Amino acid sequence: MEEEVRMLLQDAFGESSDGEGGDEAQERKSQDLNKLSIFGEIQNWERIDQIKGLWLCRDFLSPDQQSSLLSAIQKEGWLSEFSGNQAMRFGNLPQWAIELSNSIKEAVFVSHYLSESRNLPTRDKGKEAYPLPPELLWREPLFDQLIANTYQPGEGICAHVDLMRFDDGIAILSLESSCVMHFSLVEDELSDYREEKAGKNSSSAKIPVLLTEGSLVLMWGEARYFWKHEINRKPGFQKWMGQEIDQRKRTSITLRKLC
User: DSSP assignment of 160-192, as one string?
Assistant: First the structure.
């Protein structure tokens, strides 16, 4: 799989040559990356170190891109006052969802390329070094199921692990309002895992992650199967660094793939 990734990267960007002049070659590489990126800039990925397989891109969509996406969702007739606060699609996704999926693949693809271009071998780092491992990134389609939800201030989601009918690799896009998502280890059959990874005294600890407007979360591996995620938006629960978060209506888009 690593060799397949290298070949695809070479097809997109060409071979890197030690013989090319440093500054000129680096400038050309930067220009190529900007041409590839749909957004015109490279996304900054943040790995949540406490949880393997949990990655965050805080500025995945700009304000203009968020507005365009929300307009596309409204044109579907979803999430209106009369249609309810949740919509689901399976298989035949709307064009905006396909473009969103392609944009996620592109952003992760570029992060793979940047690691390669900096001479950081994937074999040494392992797949945990990437927002999505190659075996998930190159599946077709990347996602074939979506859920769109709206939450009014005070409304959130209870702690859960996504159903096993869905494959590994889940993307969650947040729009319109910032919030804190908490992650906690699952119970019961994973008690041994809790003790090994979190320690007996901290097995019930929750890991907070701030989701800003336009941010994207990717969950795979341990983050997808061993950790529950929840958003408690009741008064007094939405704080970050001691400051109360101004809660507004929040829209989320979840992309998954059926097994």
Answer: E---TTB-S-EEEEEESS-EEEEEEE--GGGHH
Q: What is the full DSSP assignment across 15-74?
A: ---TTS-HHHHHHHHHHHHHHH-TTSSPPPPEE-TTSTTEEEETTSS-HHHHHHHHHHHH
- C-alpha separations of 170 from 53, 83, 89, 104, 257 in Å: 10, 25, 15, 11, 8
Give 178-202 pLDDT, tens digit per residue. 999 999 999 754 555 555 555 544 4
What's the CATH fold of domain 2-12+23-256?
Jelly Rolls (2.60.120)
Contact 100, 255 (CB under 8 A): yes
Q: How many CA atoms lie within 13 A of 255 on its CB side?
A: 24
